[in-house]
Amino acid sequence: MLANFDFDVIRRSLSYLFIDGMTFTLTLTALSATGGLIFGTLIALMRLSGYRVMGWIAGLYVDFMRSLPLVLVIFWFYFLVPYIGQWLTGSSRPIKVGAFASSLITFIMFEAAYFSEIMRAGIQSISRGQPAAASALGLTYAQTMRYVVLPQAFRNMLPVLLTQTIVLFQDTSLVYVLSIPDFLGAASKVAQRDGRLVEMYLFAAVVYFTISCIASYGVRRLQSRIAIIR
Amino acid sequence: MNYTWNWHIFLEPNPTGAGTYFDMLLAGLKVTIVTSLSAWVIALIFGTIVGILRSLPSKLATWIGFIYVEFFRNMPLLVQLFLWFFVLPELLPRTAGLWLKQMPNAPFYTAAVGIGLFMSARVAVQLAAGIGSLPRGQKMAATALGLTTLQVYRYVLLPMAFRIILPPLTSEFLNTVKNSAVAITIGLIELTGAARAMQEFSFQVFEAFSAATLMYLVINIIVVIGMRLLERAVAIPGYITGK
């Protein structure tokens, strides 16, 4: 058991795991969270816009995305994105899309559905008097959203948004199904090459656990600091 | 080079020799349903125990509940499945490890247990919140009536708490169904896996994924409707959803 442990395989692959794998994972997480938040906010605004067709489309998108497993969505986009690219650029054959771009598009589209629900709750938590007061002051819809509603909605929902980002960080490990070397993919490659599954998977588990624990502790601290006393 | 659609592919025989491609997807659907239900039973059992622990006045119990939840929540499900599937048999004594490795249908059992325990942490959090949302007076009144702690939970707190958390439990069950797709990584041929296999054999990517997507949507709709009926059936008049 533990006596057979080869800790050296971890030490030998550290630079590959962290410089290649973890960089991929963290970049994907950060960019997907940003993109997901932007699209999610737009979807939430569509849903709350009061235009029935727009709200309906946004609602349909969110419900659709949220009822599918992420693994299936990853496969969908992996095969679909080259054809969408062909359609957009009007080229004669499906364009080649790299592993990173493909998974980034997937995660942005997928997370937008989840972030939009959070932003929707945030926007609805702003009392009705505020947009009313803003438009009484002569602000346009865009200005009301930009200067009054969204900053407060964002601040109220910051802990939830960050928690969702931690979930996203863990979910990026699913790009494993496309054999992309993210952190887990890199660990798994080394594990299979050296026949050291136990060491590598335990190490990957410890790393994910530590990062997520520290991050969620930070979110809890932040939550108690920015909580608004009503 | 454009994609050629061929919706008749579902009626063509699949390469395993057992029926059509559609039968292959149906077999995957069945695995998805069975895996999700088994995982859900495990999640409910362990989630209830840990949720109760988290709500007890004892510091030790709260602490154990906290550790349990943090342990299962802070690792990706994929990593947890790998730990159960690849690592656990190696860490156990030789005979037990061998028995685990040679177990027929190992991916299914691993997925059910792994996803079940992963989801149990979420169920526990919901249940603890549900118990916490009950007025303090309920527990006090039950204690004043002479009920033991076990009876207080069994007859007073849990029946109310579970009714309150039915809506979030519905989405947790749907998450269980969706998470069962992760088991594709340990070789379980569930719905997503079946669609992927069909894509590899027939090259009809989008037909295969469309069919799988549709099946997931149908599962979702059925579960949502079923849970709404259940909510209505167990609603207590004049309380929460008793409109």
Structural description of this entry:
The complex is a heterodimer of chains A (230) and B (243). Chain A has 230 residues and is mostly helical. Chain A has 8 helices and no strands. Chain A has helices spanning 7-47, 52-66, 70-89, 99-124, 129-136, 141-171, 183-194, 197-226. With 243 residues, chain B is mainly alpha-helical. Chain B contains 10 helices and no strands.
N to C succession of SSEs of chain A: HHHHHHHH
Task: List unreliable stretches of 5+ residues of chain A.
Answer: none
How much beta of chain A, percentage-wise? under 5%
The residue-averaged pLDDT of chain B reads: 91
Amount of helix of chain B: over 70%
Structural class of chain B: mainly alpha
Features:
heterodimer, A: 230 residues, mainly alpha, 8 helices, 80% helix, B: 243 residues, 10 helices, 75% helix, 0% strand
What's the quick description here?
The complex is a heterodimer of chains A (230) and B (243). By secondary structure, chain A is mainly α. Chain A has helices spanning 7-47, 52-66, 70-89, 99-124, 129-136, 141-171, 183-194, 197-226.
List the topology elements:
The complex is a heterodimer of chains A (230) and B (243).
Chain A: H1 7-47, H2 52-66, H3 70-89, H4 99-124, H5 129-136, H6 141-171, H7 183-194, H8 197-226
Chain B: H1 21-55, H2 59-73, H3 77-91, H4 94-102, H5 106-132, H6 136-144, H7 149-164, H8 166-179, H9 191-202, H10 205-234
Helix pairs in contact in B: 1-2, 1-5, 1-8, 1-9, 2-5, 3-4, 3-5, 5-7, 5-8, 6-7, 8-10, 9-10
